């Protein structure tokens, strides 16, 4: 079984090979394995069908576009516009092979995140089959 939920912090975006990976250091819950805090990515421990969902908030007077990536390929996007603090969310069901990677990438704009324990950007996933 693999179930996890993490809170993310935009202030610490990882730049790996010119890719802005949304850094998610706050593990809210994890049962099983798969979440890699150091790289902010899910690495499938076993082959199967997984469900992923994420939500993010735009910073004041800015927009954002965040994509869910599977082995680097764009799967779905969420967008929040620049008219105040706007939420965007998206979900996907993916077939993963053991070792496949799933992560969030900031494509454009800026996310809002407080330095407190509030989590405005979250990322959750679990194995379905």
TrEMBL record:
Domain C1q: residue ranges: 1-129
SMART domains in UniProt: C1Q (SM00110)
TM stretches of this protein: 9-28
Cleavable signal peptide: 1-17
Main location: secreted
Keywords of this entry: Membrane, Secreted, Signal, Transmembrane, Transmembrane helix
Subcellular location: Secreted
Top-rank lineage group of the source organism: Eukaryota
Cellular component terms per the entry's GO annotation: extracellular region
A Pfam family this chain is assigned to: C1q
Protein name per the record: C1q domain-containing protein
Taxonomic path: Eukaryota, Metazoa, Ecdysozoa, Arthropoda, Crustacea
